[in-house]
Specification:
Blueprint (H helix, E strand, L loop, with lengths): L5 E5 L2 H11 L1 H16 L6 H8 L3 H7 L1 H14 L3 H8 L1 H7 L6 E7 L10 E8 L5 E7 L5 E7 L3 E6 L3 E7 L13 H9 L4 H11 L4 E7 L4 E7 L2 E5 L5 E4 L14 H4 L2 H15 L6 H7 L25 E9 L4 E5 L8 E5 L1
Helix pairs in contact: 1-5, 3-6, 4-5, 5-6, 8-9
Length: 352
């Protein structure tokens, strides 16, 4: 579990990767062990087969962001593993769909303008995943001068705020696996999105790259909010309603709902979405970072609530909980993080 110490990395992509790998070596090794164990458990497959599926993504990543492959290689050098293993870790969400094994859960929001007490943009989310997942807080400073502050979940995906004045939240979405396509892995395109120097550049990249299993929204200090839902053959831009965006693990786009499997896999997604909408509406005009922390502690429909706790009636592979809670204020350049359930853990403040 995270100690709350910020891992700071800077320099070339290879150097940043090495610094990250050195500082987070044990957590990354633990995460690698976990993904290979889960993805091969119960299948007639091997670690080598899992890696063979992951490397199919390499040409797409090479074309989209060759610099990021250098960062992955630097991390692998520091951890002491084959760089293809580290690349496989970055593909875990797509591989989870391919092998039908891993499903991440989250509840996210973004609010701005007259919805907040002081007019500042606020965004964030609760991250739901397996208990005891390794977490790190990492600040990376790139040679273009952009700093990115991230909560790293298992070393395979990050939730971030940057010095260009925008932040990002994300949720998993699920469609029938027979529509699976080899596109870009989430873990390999979000880093490029978050090191852009403007909101518009970042969102343009999201539209180019996001396909298949994700919802994302960006929110910036000037009050711009914009989301994107994706399926394997397209995407839809989600505009805010009344200065608000909120999302869980079910599609909002009408044309995608016919292929949405949340009703079977994640039925609590709908209740969490409606609960978030109600809480935001009740507090409209009075929203602050502290009030959003209270919203993220909400236990309506527990244990599968916004603040999620382990449900002992679920099988082991569904024993998920809130592993971290984030509230970001881009104008102030701060990210408040509770390491664990926010009803139990105090938020700590980090500056980008």
């Amino acid at each position: 579990m995270n100690t709350g110490t910020v891992v700071e990395c800077r320099g070339s992509f290879r150097e940043i990767g090495r610094q990250y790998g050195e500082a987070c070596r044990e957590n990354l090794r633990s995460s690698l062990d976990f993904i290979f164990r889960v993805l091969t458990n119960g299948y007639r497959t091997t670690k080598e087969d899992v890696m063979a599926q992951a490397v199919k993504y390499i040409p797409n990543v090479q074309a989209f962001d060759p610099d990021y492959l250098e960062q992955v290689k630097g991390t692998a050098e520091a951890v002491g593993c084959d760089w293809r293993e580290m690349f496989t870790l970055r593909c875990i969400l797509e591989l989870g769909v391919y092998y039908q094994k891993l499903r991440g859960l989250c509840t996210s929001f973004a609010v701005a303008g007259d919805r907040t007490r002081d007019g500042k943009t606020i965004l964030g989310q609760n991250i739901h995943w397996f208990p005891h997942v390794p977490l790190d807080i990492v600040k990376m400073e790139y040679e273009n001068g952009v700093r990115v502050l991230s909560v790293s979940l298992g070393g395979f995906v990050e939730y971030s705020l940057n010095s260009s004045g925008y932040g990002m939240s994300a949720n998993s979405l699920f469609t029938a696996p027979d529509g699976f396509r080899i596109h870009l892995p989430i873990g390999c395109y979000l880093p490029k999105v978050m090191r852009q120097s403007s909101f518009e550049e970042a969102f343009s990249l999201l539209c180019q790259a996001a396909r298949g299993i994700g919802y994302f929204h960006l929110a910036d200090a000037s009050g711009r909010l914009r989301g994107i839902e994706s399926v394997f053959d397209g995407y839809t831009v989600i505009e805010p309603s009344g200065g608000m965006l909120y999302h869980t693990n079910c599609y909002l786009t009408d044309s995608y709902q016919g292929q949405d499997t949340a009703g079977t896999i994640l039925p609590d997604s709908f209740a969490r979405k409606e609960r978030m909408a109600a809480r935001l509406a009740d507090l409209a005009g009075e929203l602050t970072a502290e009030r959003m922390m209270d919203v993220l502690r909400d236990h309506d429909n527990a244990p599968t609530s916004i603040c999620r706790h382990v449900d002992p009636n679920q099988p082991a592979e569904w024993q998920m909980t809130t592993v971290a809670s984030l509230v970001m204020v881009p104008e102030d350049g701060v990210m408040h993080v509770a390491w664990g359930n926010p009803c139990e853990a105090a938020y700590r403040t980090y500056t980008v």
